[in-house]
Write a structure and sequence with these properties.
The protein is α+β, with helices and mostly antiparallel strands and 109 residues long. The protein is 34% helix and 28% strand. The chain is built from four helices and five strands, in the order βααββααββ. It has helices at residues 15-23, 27-35, 63-71, 74-83; strands spanning 2-10, 38-46, 51-58, 87-88, 100-102. Strands 1, 2, 3, 4 and 5 form a five-stranded antiparallel sheet that branches. The longest helix has 10 residues, at 74-83. The protein is globular and about 40 Å long.
């Protein structure tokens, strides 16, 4: 299992909408994440800085293939049409990233 953290900004005027979306995530989106070996997915919001921190545990062996599996799903693509306008990707993210991936520097069981 690999712990993964990521960050992204959020458009302040869209915070309520984003929270409402995530209060009832579509079952097909959740199923696709599970199929792609993502577990324990959590998103935290920090205001007034308006940044979000996402955490998940990846239980697969081919992360890139599993992420392509998620991205190829039409229902997930439709979900992103609602979520993406709420998000403000960080300028410092790597090429090809939407959420900026983070380096794990500490973990305590």
């Amino acid at each position: 299992m690999q712990r993964m953290g990521m960050m992204i900004g959020i458009v302040p005027e869209k915070i309520a909408e984003y929270k409402a979306l995530h209060a009832a995530v579509w079952p097909a989106v959740l199923a696709r994440l599970a199929e792609a070996n993502v577990r324990n997915y959590t998103i935290f919001l920090r205001e007034p800085e308006n940044v979000m921190f996402g955490y998940w545990e990846y239980h697969g062996t081919d992360f890139e293939a599993d992420m392509r599996h998620i991205a190829a799903d039409p229902e997930t693509q439709r979900w992103w049409t609602f979520c993406s306008p709420c998000q403000a990707p960080l300028a410092s993210r790597a090429e090809g990233e939407h959420w900026a991936m983070m380096e794990q520097v500490f973990h305590m069981d």
